[in-house]
Amino acid sequence: MTVPPSPARPPDGPPSRQPPEPDRRRALLRALRSGVLGCGLVCGGVLLADRLFPPDLGRYQARSTLVLDRDGGTLRGFLSPDGAWRLEAGVEDVAPLYLDLLRGYEDRRFDRHPGIDPLALLRAVGQAWRHGRVISGGSTLTMQVARLLEPRPRTLSAKLIEMLRALQLEAHYSKAEILGFYLTLAPFGGNLEGVRAASLAYFGREPAQLTPAQAALLVALPQSPTARRPDLHPEAARRARTQVLQRLHAAGRLDARTLAEADAEPLPLARQPLPRIAPHLAERLAGASPPGSTLRTTIDPALQRLAEQVAATARQRLEPEAEVAALVLEIRSRAVLAYVGGSVSGPAGQVDMVRALRSPGSTLKPLLYALAFEGLPLHPETRIEDRPIAFGAYRPGNFGGGFRGSLTVRSALQQSLNVPAVGLLARLGPAQVAGRLRAAGMQLALPGGPGAEAGLSLALGGVGVRLEHLAGAYAALADGGVARPLRLLADSPVATGTRLVDPRAAWSVVDILRGTPPPDGRSPDPDRPLAYKTGTSYGFRDAWAAGFTPDHVLVVWVGRPDGTPRPGAVGRDEAAPILFRLADLLPRGRGFPPPPMGVLPTGAPLPEPLRHFELDPLRAVVATPPAAAPLAVAFPPDGAEVDLAAGSGQPEALPLEAMGGRPPFRWLVNDLPLPGGEEGEGARFWQPDGPGFARITVIDSAGQQARSTVRLR
Fold it and tell me: What are phi and psi of 683, to 5 degrees?
């Protein structure tokens, strides 16, 4: 009988009890689900913590407001809300050498680690174990940024928080952004924070221009900013700088020659004041922007510094209360290249005269003539009359007295005669002219306040305007009649234009002003053509010069910010020389453009309607004149003592000025009328024959009289 073989058994041990295949698969799936769930909970916790506790950028955002020139240089910074010079700086604002030294000294693996450098931490632990004290902290630049953003006491728990924050920062921001945080927040002694503030205060230069020695010092300072301040502890600063240089030399980042030259470079032993260039513009922009803004302007830094020097030199020749303001802009882009609002000394210097409302005198006449060329049968060679004429109750006269008779429109504008200008305004209508100027961006403050109607005094500057708006209007004339807003910020676009006048009218005015004689002591420069117009406001309160080259517009104002008179101060003598000195700073360029289509060639005979323009007061559009203020002698005031001797010892001409009343005026001295007849403006000159007492009388057209008795010495 055959016995069946028994089942195979393992040679040793009991029989296998492995679970069936389906049970093993379920166990693996449960383990996998548990692992995924655990990872999900961890990741969710991390994400929730990141959402609940995002990086706090409050200190970085509470930085100083910074105003830059068009090249990125500092015009002016302002203290942060907590009183620090915390000027924003990015990697593009500093010298590559400084960044190389910073990485090499502080964090060689910055570009590779995720915020924490395990090798640096192990090295720090090993050094502390061997030496029994902390030799290096193992902090990365990202960890230092975490500490700068949220300062804490130096404890182990604070270190752990910094490590977590560093990982979080690396997850949210690029390496360049993290470096920007460090470059803005790193301490450099006192209230200096950030490499830009330190570079300007210690070296007087932007961080993009640092030498190796300067860069090494700024790398060393944040480790111990108080103990290493070069202005307080120069030897400690020198040792720290040398340590940085030697370490980088040992790492092969500096050659021996550069090391020796940098180590011998003198240290800065005092803090320098931070830049204060174009202060009125900086105040203006900072006041209109959120705190901590960085504002890049259109200012040309070299031209701005030179313009401020020109204004300061001119101011030295004026009385202490007088100021100089100026604006230079590029016609094509309307970018403001130089902005001088006045000086910054004394109460008067705090007023930004670029934005102050002032009477423009005769500088509005070119705009009036341009509108007349467009709207009336007028040509530069048209004959016009300068003679006594009344427009209602208004009888204008000329600044220097007398009348010129028949002359061309070109000569009338170049000589700034008043009767032709008022006659053209009367024909156009003051309200229409004021409306056209407003549409082109010029704010007009009319006598009588809001709602008042423009009158014929508009032709002679009887209105308040801002220097910047006058510059914009002149830019329109130079740009074919198209007005655009001025640009102060580099990122603001060139605005769409508004037509002020047609191209032919604008060109005609430019062509006339090109022939205005230069001020005394200057000769025309064919390589730098300049068309310009001067103006003097009523009572000698404002002296103006406004003009343009083919590429730039320049406007200059001289006067007292409080508006007090400066007898005898006229635009041609005070503002025009400054205008020409500013024009000398501009590059020599092309000439003025040729005339547009439709302009009659020079010398061509005029059609009959253009040969003569008749000033017809019966057709004038005249606003009702306001009630006259009481008449008074403004200068010289009653009881004054006046020195008459000039440098030559001969008596100088004495300006006489009336205020109030209704023109025209008649002047008498010691009851004898002055020669020259009636004057349309409230100012003229009298030539005394020697010292003594004089009784000065002025009579207006309504019969009012005012007197002043003065002593002449």
Answer: -150, 145
